[in-house]
Structure formats: structure tokens, C-alpha cells
Amino acid sequence: MFKKVYLPVLILITILICPSQLQAAKDSGDVAAKIDKDVITMSELNKAAESDLMPLASQIYDIKKKRLDQMVEDKLYELEAKKQKTSVEALKAEINKGDEDMSDDAIEVYYDLNKAQFGNRPLEQVKAQIKNLLIRRKLDKSNDEFLAGLRKKYNVEVMLEEPKMELDIDGYPSRGPDNAKVTVVEFTDFQCPFCKRFKDTIDQLVEEYPNDVKHVFHHLPLPMHRNAKGAHHASVCADRQGKFWEMREVLFNNATALERENLNKYAGEVGLDMDAFSKCMEDPEIDKYLDDAASYAQSVGARGTPTSFVNGTLFRGAQPYEQLKQVVETKLK
């Protein structure tokens, strides 16, 4: 009798004591939306919006990093000025002492090397401009070197973390050691002129850091480039014969001539088995692979080319070599 009367009550109490997904999410403050008895959590929302938020997160980071660098610099000058029992202004003046002038010889050398930059105007017309430029560079160099010393002296540690995207790199063409400290993941299009420029930058980087940089190639042929998908299809076929990087070189060097008949010619140039290549070019599975690759690119925020990630940090466009090198150097420290 006891069981008959109280069992439903016990079940109800158990339900109330053991919270549902909705109640648990409410308690944790993790509810983004409620639909009948189901919930969409903030964690699920953040995951779904990750690729859309990545560019914004990168912009926010850049703004904070710039501000933080300035704040750290100001604090270092204050600490060192206090230590030397002087003012910040006097300290900076001492650092820059002797850097406020520039010799005529240095100005002439710079002018001779960069005439085109000044529209081939006579030296006298641009001398003051060049002098100011060279003095600015000299002052910046002195200050950078001084601050680098202060960073070590006062044990500067930066805890501000860059936003990072976890990327799938397995099964994609890659070069460089698997244990490299820096991984550059590139989303690119063989018919994109900016991608050709960035390709040269990547090649230079891999050559300069053979033991520290791994380069991963992701296919992203854009719909607006009518021959791009065929070119990427050809590169996958070349990859099957162990000739991806040779084909990549030829395709980028002939980015304005990627019609099918030309792809056959390039396959012959890199030494592919032409029968196998012809059959591969008709393989619908590769078209599906490229479509999936494009969808994946969209999912991680790569919506234009070139897009790259350096250790998960997003960079859009054809980054200049010196800028990319600086990023790599920072990651290596």
C-alpha cells in the first residue's frame, strides 16, 4: 500500500531534485534561448558563431595589444627615469642624443636607391623629406633598442592572449617538420593574383625557417574564378602522384592560363602519368572534396583569399614578408 500511494510522489520529488538540462543551464547562467523544454546554451552559441566572431576578436586583440604596448612602454620609461633620478623627458632626450641629424651622404645614398619613389624629382626638392624620414628611422631604432633592454631589466611578461582557431591540418598538402614551432595554414586560390604574391612570401618563409615552420595548404577556389576549381582539381591529381608542390608552382606561374587543355600540358611538364591524370580529372570524388574544402574554409572564417592562420591566429590578405616574418619571430620566442 505504501508503494502504491507514494511511488508517483517519489518520482516527482526525484525529478525536482535532479535538475533537467534546462535547470542545469539556468543555474549556470548558460542559457541563450529556450524552446519548449529544450535549450540552446551560450556554449553552443559561441561554438556556432566562432568563425563569424574570429575577425572581430582579432581586431579587438589588435586594439588591446597596441594600447598595452604603449602602457608598458610608458611604465618602463617611468621606472627607469625614477631609477636614474631624472624625468621621462630628460631620459628620452638622452637616448636620442646624436640622432637628430643626418649626413648628406646618407641622404644621397637613399635618394639614389629610391628615385622612382619620389617620381624622379631632383634631390634638392626631396632632400628635407628624406632627411626627416631617415632621422625618424634612426630615432625609432634607438628607442626600440633601449626599450628591449628595459623589458629584460624589468622582467616584462605579457599575459594578453591572442584569439586562436583550432584548424584541421591532417590529410592536406604540407611541408616542414611535424614538430615545427610555427604552423602556417594557408587558404588560397590558384587564379587569385594576391594569392600568387602571398605564395612567394610563404616560399621565402619556408626557405628561411626550414626547421621551425610547417606550411599547410588548404584549397579555396573562389566561384568568381571560373578556372580555379579545375586547377585545384589538377593539383589534387598531382598530389596523388606525389607531385603537388611541383604542380602548385606551375599553376601559380600560369594563373591566367588555367583552361583544361593547359592543365594537361602542365601535368606533362611536371612529369605526371598522363593516363592516370586524365582519369583523375574525371573523378567526381575530387569535386566533392573541393566543395567540402570550401565549406570548411567558410566554417573557420576563411571567406576570401588569401587567408592564413599562424598558430591559429587569423591574418587576411597577402601579408608582406617582413610582417609575416615578425609574426613568426614572435611565435618562436
From TrEMBL:
Its name, as the record gives it, is Thioredoxin domain-containing protein
**Carries keyword Signal?**
yes
- PROSITE patterns referenced in this protein's UniProt entry, alphabetically: THIOREDOXIN_2
Which intervals hold domain Thioredoxin? 137-333
* Family per similarity comment: Belongs to the thioredoxin family. DsbA subfamily.
| GO molecular-function terms, A-Z | oxidoreductase activity
Keyword terms of this UniProt record: Disulfide bond, Oxidoreductase, Redox-active center, Signal
Residues in the signal sequence: 1-24
Lineage, highest ranks first: Bacteria, Pseudomonadati, Candidatus Omnitrophota, Candidatus Abzuiibacterium
